[in-house]
Amino acid sequence: MEHEVTHAIFAFLTAHKIVGIRASMGDGGEVRYEGRGNWLITAAPYFFPTAALVLSLFAYLLPFPNLPWPSFLLGIALGYHFISTCRETHRDQTDLKELGSLFSWMFLPAANLAMVGFLVAFAHNGMPGVNVWLADCRQPFEAIVAWL
User: Which terminal residue of the chain, N or C, has fewer Cβ atoms less than 10 Å from its own Cβ?
Assistant: First the structure.
């Protein structure tokens, strides 16, 4: 279900009207929406850890500074994302066929590293940690631009 919900979230975020969602344990699932769709809707479940980001949002909005639960639950949610992504990533996966092998191999590992980096930075030090992580991510690009 989380896989299909992630497709639906990105369909909604890219201005598509959701008209149906179906998920099952063994038969797969689908999200139906109005419009052409796009690569982001197709790729989203393979790099966007929905459960972990929802937990991070709750941890940000309802902070309990002396309790370790946000980091513990975030670890579980990231583990779930990793395992479910590994199980869903196979040669016969229709989403990955639609994206193409070259695009999938180039984009998805980098996007996963970015999302996991963001979540680990948040778990480590909240928004100040995210700010440091963003600054660290920006430095290589600034160096390339300065060199050019």
Answer: C
Q: What is the pLDDT of residue 127?
A: 84
In angstroms, what is the C-alpha Rg of the chain?
17
Q: How far apart are CA 42 and CA 40, in angstroms?
A: 5
Q: Which of 43, 70, 45 is nearest to 58 (CA)?
A: 70
21 membership: H or E segment, kind and range = strand 18-23
Q: What is the pLDDT of residues 20-68, one digit of tens each?
A: 888 877 777 788 888 898 999 999 999 999 988 888 887 778 766 666 6
Model confidence, pTM: 0.78
The continuous run of DSSP H or E covering 30 comes out as: strand 29-33
Q: How far is CA 6 from CA 48, 65, 66, in A?
A: 7, 29, 31
Packed helices 69-88 and 101-147: angle between N→C axes, nearest 10 degrees: 130
Residue 118, Cα to own-chain centre: how many angstroms?
Answer: 10
